[in-house]
Amino acid sequence: ASLARVDKLDLAPIPPLPAGFLTAEEEEAGKQRYLDSKLKRKLSPGERTPPSCFSTDSFEWPMPPRSDSVTLSQLVLPGDCTPCGLVYGGVLMKLMDNAAGILAVRYCRTNAVTACIEAVDFHSPAHLGDVVTVTAIPSFSSSRSLEIEVLVTCEDLLTSRVAVTCHAFYTFVSKASDGTVRPISQLKPATEADVQRFESGRQRYLNRRVNKTNSDPKALGSES
After folding, report:
1. Is the whole model's pTM more than 0.85, yes or no?
2. Tens digit of each residue's pLDDT, the chain (224 residues)
3. What's the burial of 13, exposed, middle or buried (CB within 10 Å: 0-12/13-18/19+)?
4. Would the CA dihedral through 177, 178, 181, 186 be positive or negative?
5. If you write DSSP's letter for every residue of the chain in order, what string do you get?
6. Which residues have C-beta within 8 Å of that of residue 179, sequence separation ≥ 6?
7. How far apart are CA 220 and CA 4, in angstroms?
8. Cβ–Cβ contacts within 10 Å for residue 10, how many?
């Protein structure tokens, strides 16, 4: 089956927040986050993420198996959907966290816990009756954290059409029985795409460290 982006939904305007709901500082900070996120979404897939098996420009379906990946598939049922038949974003995010969590525990063989979720980008909706497939692969490791790239696709079983639904990066840390953060073994990229993905992950890791230092110098440490 070929990859096809399903049609975007018509979006209705959202009324502004009532006067006084936010302080001027809160409103400005929220506006900046919105603009930063909007700018990231204007970048091409190649600029946001390195060429990989997750590239929407050269997407293979079914995806080639990898020994270090985790794949979960689930039929979309009525309880997963809004009254309009669209899958709740929270349902997809739970599946993403499950897939990434399984991979992280397999990699660390400890109580790996979610430390950070970066920019869950929703590209197209999944509908009632679709098969949702979540694929997670390791993308980067520091001395004490593991970043995992997660892709969600939806498949219309009647037409065999497959679309990218959402995409995100999850970061996990390995916890010992006493709750302290443990060092983890280093990820060893095997292919050129893995190397590119690793270097892109390294840059995201360094950016997070800078952001943490700027916001709260005491917060830096768990991901080191």
Report:
1. no
2. 444 444 455 667 888 888 888 888 888 888 888 887 777 666 544 344 433 444 444 445 455 556 689 999 999 999 999 999 999 999 999 999 999 999 999 999 889 999 999 878 899 999 999 999 999 999 999 999 999 999 999 999 999 999 999 999 999 999 988 889 999 999 999 889 889 999 999 999 998 888 777 766 555 455 65
3. exposed
4. negative
5. --B-PPPPPPPPP-PPPPTTSS-HHHHHHHHHHHHHHHHHHHS-HHHHS-SSTT-TTS--SSPPP-TT-EEEEEE--GGGB-TTSBBPHHHHHHHHHHHHHHHHHHHHSSEEEEEEEEEEEE-S--BTTPEEEEEEEEEEE-SSEEEEEEEEEEE-TTT--EEEEEEEEEEEEEE-TTSPEEP-PPP---SHHHHHHHHHHHHHHHHHHHHHHHH-GGGTTTT-
6. none
7. 41
8. 5
User: Which residue carries 């009756």 as its tokens?
Assistant: 129
